[in-house]
Amino acid sequence: MFNAYYSMYIFMSDVKIKLEAEKTTATLVNKVYEKLKKNISLYKKVVNRPITISEKILIGHLANYKDIESANDYLIPTKSYVLLKPDRVALQDVTGQMTILQFSQAGLKQTSVPTTVHCDHLIQARVGSEPDTKAALYENNEVYQFLESASRKYGIGFWKPGAGIIHQVVLENYAFPGGLMIGTDSHTPNAGGLGMIAIGVGGLDAAEVMAGMPWELLYPKRIGVYLTGKLNGWTSPKDIILYVASKLTVSGGTNAIVEYFGPGARTVSCTGKATITNMGAEIGATCSLFPYDKTMDTYLRATGREAIADLANKNINLLTQDNEIEKEIEQNPENALKYFDQFIEINLSNLEPYIVGPHTPDLARPISNMAEDVKNNNYLDTISVSLIGSCTNSSYEDMSRAADIAKQAKERGVRTKIPLQVTPGSEKVRSTIERDGQMQILKDIGANVLANACGPCIGQWNRPELKKGEPNTIVTSYNRNFPGRNDGRRETMNFIGSPELVIALALAGRLSFNPLTDSLIANDGTLFKLDPPKTAPEVPENGFKDVQDIYVPPSDNPDNVDIQINKNSDRLQLLKPFSKWDGNDFDKLPILAKVKGKCTTDHISPAGPWLMYRGHLDKLSDNLLLGAVNAFQDGKIGIGKNILNSKNESFAHIAREYKTKSLKWIIIGDKNYGEGSSREHAAMTPRYLGCAAVIAKSFARIHETNLKKQGILALTFSDETDYEKILEDDRISIINLKDLKPKIPVDCILYHKDGTIETISLQHSYNESQLEWFYAGSALNVLKSKDEFKDAENKLVSN
Ligand code: MIC
Ligand code: SF4
């Protein structure tokens, strides 16, 4: 369906299928297991204790074997940086543009690591799947052409628009137990459902790995989640992660790997596990994962990867934690602290369905408390739109359970009271549920099917029916619900639950409905209660439908492929290197913004209509801090005081003016600054407009790395209360920059308007090599100065 449109707009000459470099072949997996075996056996001798699954996979991917010998000193959780060799890189179409632009600067002919690009974020939800995909192909033609030609040239697998959302397509085709993958999207940990350590990173991290360099990670601590019992009734895998999020909060997983295990874990389907690990991003975890088990075997076989399933079964000891750990915890849960820094136990048999929101994914309550919460908080009870699907919850099992609820309604002549939008995660699932009837049942109760893409999850959602500023409630089975996230409107309140719960709420049309206790009215006027959804098949009984023509392999004539960027393009712009540090301290710099409260990457560099400029740094920079709440001005959003004229103007406008005057500036952040996505644009746009430093109470992991990589000094207050000392007209100096050293605090002087001066102390987490990024102006400048890349010729030119 999509392909006809696709070929109308995208040239596809000289596509010849030969290279398999981008695939996860059994040979590759075997090689990974051989290395795991060797490294783990040495590590066990060194630490002399049973080890967990994340330890096994990380140790098995260390870049330097000799580091294992000194593991007791070298691998200190949250203290040591380790160098790893990932097996794969996954890119999506909006972060992938910058990644490829940066990779091209290394001047290599091909990527060194299997890589794929997925066109999912740029399709706007307007009417429905076909017209929306067609419109996206037309509107984004230039970007798709760039991504496709670069993929074919550099040996990257290219998944066309309509093929599906990155994390689903990766799960169906590339993820494998025991592997290590990085992806330029924060929900890359979705692949943890298939036993892989999969971590979201900024584009430059990915570009470096594609260029063959090792990848650096702060060695994570471990959070163990021990599952017993079995999900039943209305409770689904989604409720496990919503419950965990409520316990750990949006920053509780920072620099931690969350390991799920125990008898309960083995009862959750592979795709259900992926829902849980996907949403680990919402607690800021480095990643989450499950040990290998039968459900993964089932999923691998159903997706045509029998050889990998066989290999995994043969190497099961490498892919599961040592048996002693679970046994010891069974005897006494306190033993968990021998292996984990934090421990949570959940009896799935007692877990209730949860609903979280609005505006933050850790504001959770069991559905039984929702009605009261609606009353107490004056939430708008009437729901405007319900949405299911996304990268988080669109598996065959999810759709089957959602369809089970829909069927009960259909049998009583009931349709949803409000619009129901379905965004399938992949063409494989979409076409299979079309064949098997689930989609038809959903349509029968009123569902509209959107493209296999991110759409309303990332602000690519056109809602002309909604008046400007109109408060409204939506319910989704997605993962994020920051203000402005879904439709660009801060007044929209997004509540998140499982797909089956969302369908139930859509039938009732109100948030306070509890399907476990409340009744609906049938077409004949009688009252009825919905039965809990029946257990659904983990994978389709008749196999997944085979889907053709959604993928373009790398060219076997890469030298003949040209990648062109039009120099007048407003979508793509070649990157100019950021200038290196000029050797001077930051002297009396103004504060562009002091941000109050939550400041996610969606607040710093919003998505929605801005997604189209993700390959054009200059244009994109106009969205700088659009959603940030100004701490100085009673919660004003996106605007602040321009010190050059004392007027209130948008942050982006002020920053541009400072830039023209060569005046650098500073951002002050609150807690967990940069929470959420992996978009390095939230570091590149401030850098481009002259940001020298961000000083925050704390940072989210990916964003902190992105700031460092792009050459912005990322600092935290030694004493959080110093945040209060910073006033609107202050000038800030950060001194002794030439002497920055790992673990040594940095001095900062506040010059207040009334003439008083205060000195405060700041911390940082740079190691020696990261400090080089700051001095060189960016990590990319460091990469380009390395011997192997020095003479490299950038293959990209504007015409
Ligand atoms: C998101 O869910 O916020 C995104 C859009 O997928 C981002 C990536 C991006 O901003 O391009 C993410 O999660 O990293
Ligand atoms: Fe796309 Fe939403 Fe998933 Fe991000 S969270 S990859 S925007 S579907």
Could you walk me through the main structural features you see in this protein, from its secondary elements to its overall organization?
The protein is of the alpha/beta class and 799 residues long. The chain is 32% helix and 17% strand. It is built from 29 helices and 32 strands. A 7-stranded mixed beta barrel has the order 23-26-27-28-31-30-29. It has a 6-stranded mixed β-sheet with strand order 6-5-2-3-4-21, with helices on both faces. A hairpin with a 5-residue loop joins strand 19 (520-521) and strand 20. Helix 27 crosses helix 28. The longest helix has 22 residues, at 26-47. 57% of the residues are buried. The model is unreliable at 1-19 (pLDDT under 50). Iron/sulfur cluster is lined by residues 120-121, 165-166, 185, 187, 390-391, 454, 457-458, 479-480.
Bulk shape: globular
Strand order of the largest sheet: 23-26-27-28-31-30-29
Unreliable segments of 5+ consecutive residues:
1-19
Give a list of the ligands: alpha-methylisocitric acid, iron/sulfur cluster
Largest sheet report? 7 strands, mixed, barrel
- Determine the fraction of residues in helical runs and give it as a percent range: 25-40%
Record keyword descriptors for this entry.
29 helices; six-stranded mixed β-sheet; alpha/beta; seven-stranded mixed barrel; 799 residues; binds alpha-methylisocitric acid
What is the topology?
Elements: H1 2-9, H2 26-47, H3 53-59, H4 66-69, H5 71-74, E1 81-84, E2 88-92, H6 95-104, E3 115-118, H7 129-139, H8 141-154, E4 157-159, H9 166-173, E5 180-183, E6 197-200, H10 203-210, E7 215-218, E8 221-228, H11 237-248, E9 256-261, H12 270-278, E10 287-289, H13 294-302, H14 306-314, H15 316-319, H16 323-331, E11 342-347, E12 354-356, E13 364-366, H17 370-377, E14 383-389, H18 396-411, E15 420-423, H19 427-436, H20 438-444, E16 447-449, E17 472-476, E18 492-496, H21 499-508, E19 520-521, E20 527-528, E21 551-552, E22 564-565, E23 586-594, H22 601-604, H23 617-620, E24 639-641, E25 648-650, H24 651-660, E26 665-669, H25 681-688, E27 691-696, H26 701-709, E28 713-717, E29 731-734, E30 746-751, E31 757-763, H27 768-776, H28 779-785, H29 787-790, E32 797-798
Parallel strand pairs: 2-3, 2-5, 3-4, 5-6, 8-9, 8-11, 9-10, 14-15, 14-17, 15-16, 17-18, 22-32, 23-26, 26-27, 27-28
Antiparallel strand pairs: 1-7, 4-21, 12-13, 19-20, 23-29, 24-25, 28-31, 29-30, 30-31
The structure holds alpha-methylisocitric acid and iron/sulfur cluster (SF4).
